[in-house]
From TrEMBL:
Residues 420-499 form the AMP-binding enzyme C-terminal domain. PANTHER family: LONG-CHAIN-FATTY-ACID--COA LIGASE (PTHR43767), NONRIBOSOMAL PEPTIDE SYNTHASE PES1 (EUROFUNG)-RELATED (PTHR43767:SF1). InterPro entries: AMP-bd_C, AMP-bd_C_sf, AMP-binding_CS, AMP-dep_synth/lig_dom, ANL_N_sf, ATP-dep_AMP-bd_enzyme. This is Long-chain fatty acid--CoA ligase. SUPFAM superfamilies: Acetyl-CoA synthetase-like. One of its GO terms (molecular function) is acid-thiol ligase activity. It comes from Nocardioides marmoriginsengisoli. Residues 13-369 form the AMP-dependent synthetase/ligase domain. It comes from the Bacteria.
């Protein structure tokens, strides 16, 4: 079979460790690699019975759990393209996702029957568990061996939805070869050699902390299987479930979102991190306050990985880098070997070392956005993915990020990056969470306004704390970067994957030059 097809990841494990337990649910169920392959074969046969073949898109609206693993590999076996839709979406969002991606079939379970009933779409619907009386059953649980079909390197492998932190979620088309190349690159970085290697037969499992409809969760699953590790899949993150699973499986590493680390830091329960070598954090920048609190509490280093659904893995730090003294605090990490990266100005010209511009990467990871031709043309140009992130590379090949191109605030002609202000103010002990936005101003064009979730039970009232935060920012930042206003909010809106949402613009009054 083709080694390009992502189904080859499972086939390789069946060849060298078929009887090894490979997948665990949070309810105690488990499957070997061979059993996964047979169940995926049942899915493949059922898809073919529905007339689904190579290149056809199949939408999944499924509660996160082990079954999604069978459906992903089953679809890949026949060359079909999974469209992984968030199980948190309502009927309108699900309908919009179907309209964007035009799948030939929608697979659902019975957990959100009200949402399924409210879909406004002509796409045929099948139930994987037979729990919806008005929906035909997708008959997939007949185990059988099905070999994967050959696919081209640039064949569409999956449709993933971006988190939508800077706009409405977009449907990203990723390729088989691009995804596999990203797995190979990360495996080589992890081993420190050109040999990708495989884990020992008794290797501890990896917790797939992010949902499988998310690129981070899906890539974590593929990476675990690619290097031969088992995987534990849960429905959703919670501190108590995390603690229970840690006690059961004794994980030696984690991949978390910053919001998960935040919750761990603030949890009353002390989690059993003994034996955990490192925690990898990606998805968005983690604040120094949260990072320091976690590392001090649990004595486990946090490593970072920079990349995206559209570009794959670009830069990061490993445990070996830390031991070798290469780590540079505040950076995105060393650009990984094999990554072609340029920093470009607004005219598309590559910039020299140390000069800021947009991060651009040559990548076969994505075919673009299936629902937005104009945005796709902006994203991928001549094989180069334009990340929208601003930053520079130093003399040691370390990438430093300053913010998102489209989030930039132009204040009195100066460029102001919200993330820089957020990082500075997060260091204040009374700031629990923060988002900075630009607000129109007649004189300055735009000014930065900070939306702050404050710590409770403090001696300062809102006016006093606002003044204190502005004074604190002036000590840490240039004058033009200092927030002109502080607004206190109960909580910050977040996307389905936990990122602070920059898509919605808060209803703030025009600037009046005051602080409140």
């Amino acid at each position: 079979m083709s080694t390009t097809n992502l189904a080859a990841v499972l086939a390789a494990r069946c060849a060298d460790r078929a009887a090894v337990p490979a997948l665990f649910g949070d309810d105690g169920r488990s499957w070997t690699f061979d059993e996964i392959d047979l169940l995926a074969g049942g899915v493949a046969a059922a898809l073919r019975a529905e007339g689904i073949g190579a290149g056809d898109r199949v939408a999944f609206y499924l509660t996160n759990g082990p079954e999604t693993v069978f459906f992903l590999f089953g679809a890949w076996k026949v060359g079909a393209v999974p469209v992984t839709i968030s199980s948190l979406y309502n009927a309108a969002e699900l309908t919009e996702s179907l309209a964007k991606t035009q799948p030939r079939l929608l697979l659902v379970d019975g957990r959100r029957a009200d949402v399924v009933a409210g879909i406004d779409s002509e796409v045929p619907v099948r139930s994987i568990d037979g729990s919806l009386p008005d929906v035909p059953v997708f008959d997939w649980q007949h185990q059988q061996r099905v070999d994967a079909v050959e696919v081209d390197d640039d064949a569409e492998a999956c449709i993933l939805f971006t988190g939508g932190t800077t706009g409405r979620p977009k449907a990203v088309s990723v390729t088989h070869a691009g995804t596999r190349g990203s797995l190979q690159r990360l495996a080589r970085v992890s081993t420190g050699t050109e040999d990708e290697g495989t884990a020992a037969l008794d290797a501890k499992p990896n917790l797939i902390a992010l949902p499988l409809f998310h690129s981070g969760g899906q890539h974590s699953l593929l990476f675990a299987f690619f290097v031969g590790r088992p995987a534990v899949v849960w429905e959703r993150f919670s501190i108590d479930l995390l603690g229970d699973l840690m006690e059961q499986y004794r994980f030696d590493n984690f991949f978390f979102l910053p919001t998960m680390v935040f919750d761990i830091v603030h949890a009353e329960r002390v989690l059993p991190f003994e034996g955990v070598k490192s925690v990898l954090v990606a998805g968005q920048a983690i604040s120094w306050t949260v990072r320091r609190a976690f590392e001090e509490r649990y004595q486990v280093p946090i490593l970072v990985n920079y990349g995206s659904t559209e570009s794959g893995h670009i830069a990061g730090w490993t445990g070996r880098d830390m031991k070798a003294g290469l780590w540079k605090p505040g950076s995105a990490g060393r650009v990984y070997p094999g990554v072609e990266l340029e920093i470009r100005d607004d005219d598309g010209a590559a910039q020299p070392v140390g000069t800021e511009g947009e991060v651009v990467v040559r990548s076969a990871m994505t075919k673009g956005y299936v629902d937005d031709a104009e945005a796709s043309a902006e994203l991928v140009r001549d094989g180069w993915v334009h990340t929208g992130d601003m930053g520079y590379v130093d003399d040691d090949g370390v990438l430093w990020l300053s913010g998102r191109k489209r989030d930039m605030i132009k204040c009195a002609g100066f460029q102001v990056w919200p993330e820089e202000i957020e990082d500075a103010l997060r260091a204040h002990p009374l700031v629990r969470d923060i988002r900075v936005v630009g607000v129109p101003d007649d004189r300055l064009g735009e000014i930065p306004v900070a939306l702050v979730v404050r710590e409770r039970d403090t001696a300062l009232d809102d006016d006093g704390l606002a003044a204190a935060l502005v004074a604190f920012a002036r000590e840490e930042l240039a004058h033009f970067k200092t927030p002109r206003r502080i607004e206190f909010v109960a909580e910050l809106e977040r996307s389905a994957t936990g990122k602070i949402s920059r898509a919605s613009v808060p209803d703030l009054a025009p600037a009046d030059g005051g602080v409140r």
